[in-house]
Amino acid sequence: MVRTARRRSGGPGVTWPSVSEIAWGLASDKRAIVLAVVLITMTVLSAGPLHPIDIFINEAPRPYWDQVREPLILWPDTVASRFVALPVLATTAIQLAYWHRSWRPIILSVGGVVGMMSMVAMMKLILQRGHPRTGDPSFFAEGGVSFPSGHGANAILIYGLVLFLIVRYRAARPHIIRRLGYCIVGIAVLQAFVSAFLHFHWFTDLLTGMVAGGFALSLVIRLDRMIPGGRTATWWPWYDPDGDDPGSGSGDAAGVQGGSEARTSGGAG
């Protein structure tokens, strides 16, 4: 729900939904509810029923271990790390914010990453799962912070945000977007394989981390739909109140409903 208001300039404007409206909007998102149930289910199964699978994968032979270990650590394992993924997201968000004179891409990116990192960190500290090198996948091990995988969550949330922003603002053609989607799936699969191969994570750590990332991404997408169109236009440092108001048109509303504003309209979040 978005309440209408009047801007200082006299034109029609909008105000932010209340905290309770935002909370209810996030809590009632069907996709987020499904992923929350999957996240809880994976956590329960990882606590015991899936231990045989974790142990089997952890103890499986690692061919060419000495030859491939260091190259895997230096390249594939870093693809979903925050040191690589965050600059990609930051570059995308800042570029789109500049093109559309809107703080919306930056707000969504910062909110999504901070929320996801907070959720994953809290789960790690509460559940305290031991490292795969200990051979014991039990929870509540002293000093354990293995569950869920932050890299798995990064692969879905951060790169998923990059793709979402590109789709929302129509910054690439459909065939490019499809290829980017395939790349994200490839990154997630590669990260899971490498982390399990190197004994960095239990297999269920990685699966649950991806679900956690998907859950956070669904909340960000829902939040985007609740941010009023045109609201952040006046926050832009180079905003000209006497010129064309990039947020006063229907570009942002169309972006919420159908995907994004066109770059030429300068629609602002």
UniProtKB/TrEMBL annotation:
Q: What spans are recorded as compositionally biased (Gly residues)?
A: 246-258
Q: Report the Pfam families cross-referenced here.
A: PAP2
Which stretches does the entry tag as region Disordered?
Answer: 242-269
Q: Which UniProt keywords apply?
A: Membrane, Transmembrane, Transmembrane helix
Query: Is this entry keyworded RNA-binding?
Result: no
InterPro entries membership = PAP2/HPO (IPR000326), PAP2/HPO_sf (IPR036938)
- The Phosphatidic acid phosphatase type 2/haloperoxidase domain covers 106-221
Gene3D superfamilies hit by this protein: Phosphatidic acid phosphatase type 2/haloperoxidase
**Which sequence ranges are marked TM in the entry?**
32-53, 79-99, 106-127, 147-167, 179-200, 206-223
UniProt-recorded name of the protein: Phosphatase PAP2 family protein
